[in-house]
């Protein structure tokens, strides 16, 4: 990408603001004619023609030729030049990193899932993550100078605008983004993992024009991502979506947030594991009983594999979680009246074992007039939602505002 334009972005000139608006339009709408672009941006055709011409000369917009129409003049189609810049997304899992590289159009160029590592909230682990990322970059077959931004997904409370993480890697008073930028050598942004998954699904998943969306991430924890009128809702400090920490149950189970009775204590991967161990200890049978008796560490993946093998105890617990979760999602539907509710995260991989009881509970506990407007679907991107969303955020953050 032209370095002059990058300096324009940093300076915040009017010219840069218009060009960022043009890029954002292409990001969300794909290629377009100058006439459609001028209508959307409320600018005259000559003004749009001038800016698009400059951006073509600078190398990050392409003229893709004539639009085929029935009769009359054939207008030219313009869109992003895929080779003008690259963006990296990193999704952190408890025992692996997913890393992707997309071009300027958002096409995945390089992609690696489950790069081994074990998460610990330590400086050594942070350094390990940085080393994995730099190794990934070193082996890329692209012009490294065209890597413009990197986004790292982090679970818990993240302020993406100021670059602070309040859940992990918060070892210093300065922004985590500054520390990571120094260590990796490229501009780094951070965001909440559920919000990234939501954004990935919005741009490249099951969303087909819907603009009011709730994404429910049912993994070891529980969170939601919210899109209102086509824009991600972050909240004042970036902390929106802490669905798992709504006080829901009158129980004495201590949540990792330090409080009791959180929704997450009964409806999450952590809850699934705890309840399964309790019921096996109480004498109920599972194909995982022998592993528990041998005191082997039971991972969420082990339990999901047992569900896939039709283990009745695991399926029963997933069903119960679906009912509990659906009741609370019904409340979200009553509040937000979304067009679409997407269920993603590790537990969504159980398919209808989770989705059917969840849908039943939603119908039971939400207002009929409201829930008839809301489609309930499973994530299309599944395990890739986080890394795809991280890549898309790395790109969009360059052109916000």
Q: What is the element layout, followed by pairings?
A:
Blueprint: H1 3-11, H2 14-29, H3 34-41, H4 45-58, E1 61-66, E2 76-80, E3 86-93, E4 96-103, E5 108-116, H5 123-138, E6 147-154, E7 158-159, E8 164-165, H6 176-184, E9 188-192, H7 193-204, E10 213-218, E11 222-228, E12 231-232, H8 269-281, H9 289-293, H10 300-308, H11 312-336, E13 340-344, H12 352-365, H13 368-371, E14 375-378, H14 385-396
Parallel strand pairs: 3-6, 6-9, 10-13, 13-14
Antiparallel strand pairs: 1-2, 3-4, 4-5, 7-8, 10-11, 11-12
What does this structure look like?
By secondary structure, this protein is of the alpha/beta class. It folds into three domains: 3-82, Winged helix-like DNA-binding domain superfamily/Winged helix DNA-binding domain (Arc Repressor Mutant, subunit A); 85-198 and 386-399, ATPase, nucleotide binding domain (Nucleotidyltransferase, domain 5, 2-Layer Sandwich), CATH 3.30.420.40; 211-379, ATPase, nucleotide binding domain (Nucleotidyltransferase, domain 5, 2-Layer Sandwich), CATH 3.30.420. It contains 14 helices and 14 strands. Strands 5-4-3-6-9 form a five-stranded mixed β-sheet. Strands 12-11-10-13-14 form a five-stranded mixed β-sheet, with helices on one face. A two-stranded antiparallel sheet has the order 1-2. A hairpin with a 2-residue loop joins strand 3 (86-93) and strand 4. Helix 7 packs across helix 14 (385-396) and helix 11 crosses helix 12 (352-365). The protein is globular and about 75 Å long. The model has no long low-confidence stretch (mean pLDDT 94).
């Amino acid at each position: 990408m032209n370095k002059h334009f990058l300096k324009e972005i940093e300076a915040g000139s009017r010219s840069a603001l218009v060009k960022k608006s043009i890029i954002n339009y292409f990001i969300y709408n794909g290629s377009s004619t100058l006439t459609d672009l001028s209508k959307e941006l409320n600018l005259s055709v000559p003004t749009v023609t001038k800016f698009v011409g400059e951006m073509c000369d600078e190398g990050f917009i392409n003229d893709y030729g004539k639009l085929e129409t029935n009769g009359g003049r054939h207008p030219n189609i313009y869109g992003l030049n895929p080779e003008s810049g690259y963006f990296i997304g990193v999704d952190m899992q408890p025992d692996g990193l997913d890393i992707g590289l997309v071009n300027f159009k958002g096409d995945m160029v390089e992609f690696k899932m489950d790069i081994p590592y074990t998460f610990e909230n330590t400086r050594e682990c942070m350094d390990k993550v940085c080393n994995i990322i730099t190794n990934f970059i070193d082996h890329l077959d692209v012009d490294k100078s065209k890597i413009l931004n990197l986004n790292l997904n982090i679970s818990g409370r993240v302020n993406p605008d100021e670059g602070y993480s309040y859940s992990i890697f918060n070892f210093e008073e300065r922004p985590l983004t500054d520390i990571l930028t120094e260590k990796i050598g490229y501009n780094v942004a951070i965001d909440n993992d559920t919000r990234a998954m939501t954004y990935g699904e919005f741009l490249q998943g099951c969303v087909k024009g819907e603009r009011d969306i709730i994404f429910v991430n049912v993994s070891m924890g529980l969170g939601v991502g919210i899109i209102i009128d086509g824009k991600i809702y972050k909240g004042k400090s970036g902390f929106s979506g802490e669905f798992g920490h709504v006080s829901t149950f009158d129980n004495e189970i201590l949540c990792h947030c330090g409080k009791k009775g959180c929704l997450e204590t009964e409806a999450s991967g952590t809850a699934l594991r705890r309840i399964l161990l309790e019921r096996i200890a109480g004498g109920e049978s599972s194909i995982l009983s022998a592993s528990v008796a041998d005191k082997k560490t039971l991972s969420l993946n082990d339990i999901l594999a047992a569900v896939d093998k039709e283990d009745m105890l695991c399926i029963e617990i997933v069903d119960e979680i679906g009912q509990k979760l659906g009741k609370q999602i019904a409340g979200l539907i009553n509040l937000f009246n979304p067009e679409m509710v997407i269920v993603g995260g590790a537990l969504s991989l159980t398919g209808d074992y989770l989705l059917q009881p969840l849908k039943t509970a939603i119908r039971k506990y939400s207002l009929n007039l409201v829930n008839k407007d809301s489609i309930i679907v499973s994530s299309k991107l599944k395990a890739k939602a986080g890394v795809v969303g991280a890549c898309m955020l790395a790109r969009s953050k360059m052109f916000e505002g």
